[in-house]
């Protein structure tokens, strides 16, 4: 399995709605964008939804373990275990 396939399976195991045919799309987020909260990747579903993502790399999340958190806008953030995060 690729890291993307591992992450999609792990998100499903946590009960998130990740339909078959979903893929992980990487997006450019430089230092300034990341400081403002931009994601470096997100899950793109066959219907075009993209409400699950992270600022962290897939490798880092899979190595450390991760948590998921839904913000007040309905976005689901994937973050490593043990990292202090700002309020969303």
How would you portray this structure in words?
The radius of gyration is 12 Å and the shape is globular. The mean pLDDT is 87. Helix content is 26%, strand content 24%. The chain has a five-stranded mixed sheet with strand order 1-2-3-5-4. The protein has 88 residues and is an alpha+beta fold. It has one domain.
> Largest sheet, if any?
5 strands, mixed
The whole-angstrom Rg is 12 Å
Q: Specify the structural class.
A: alpha+beta
Strand adjacency order, main sheet: 1-2-3-5-4
Number of E strands: 5
Poorly predicted regions are none
Query: Helix-strand pattern, N to C?
Result: HEHEEHEE
Return the domain count: 1
Strand percentage lies at 15-25%
- End-to-end span in angstroms? 32 Å
Helical content stands at 25-40%
Give the averaged pLDDT, no decimals: 87
- Number of separate helices: 3
Shape: globular
